[in-house]
């Protein structure tokens, strides 16, 4: 069962560009934690995680997570950036700075796997048990929470974009706008 009582819907749009054996989005679908849909089927009132969105995810976005779910677009960092830049469906949000715990990008900011991105969105919007459930699919999953626990706690209480920026600067010495600009420049 993908969605139980009180569980937000987790949705994956797969482009099939990553190694299937390492694809965390595909594993979420295989294990019944997420459903796979086509891009045109993205619910209008869902949170679509997109590092190139205009607005950062805030705890108040829980209303969209409850109504439409969390959507992760599973594309390769190498070839999928243009698809993400053009994405317009759903309620577009980017995550504040977090460190990856996955073996490929361990310790790198903004290089989260699909699984980590979904878990972070769930945690920030108040669905902490669901975040833990998602992360339990991999041995390294709980490490993501350990690595980011303190900053996730702060993000989950932020009331504004300015508060998020302040938290980012406190923990990382830079805000996500600066890092996002760097990502866009590598396209």
Briefly summarize what is shown.
This protein is an alpha/beta fold and 187 residues long. 41% of the residues lie in helices and 10% in strands.
Characterization of this structure:
41% of the residues lie in helices and 10% in strands. It has 187 residues and is an alpha/beta fold. It has one domain (10-185). Helix 1 links the parallel strand 1 (10-14) and strand 2. Helix 4 packs antiparallel against helix 5 and helix 4 runs parallel beside helix 6 (141-155).
Output the keywords:
8 helices; 41% helix; alpha/beta
Proportion of residues in extended strands: 5-15%
Q: Kindly report the spatial arrangement of strands forming the biggest sheet.
A: 2-1-4-3-5
Low-pLDDT regions: none
Secondary-structure element series: EHEEHEHEHHHHH
Instruction: Find the structural class using helix and strand composition.
Output: alpha/beta
The number of distinct structural domains comes to 1
Largest sheet: 5 strands, parallel
Taken from the alpha-carbon principal axes, the silhouette is globular
The total of helices stands at 8
Distance between the termini: 38 Å
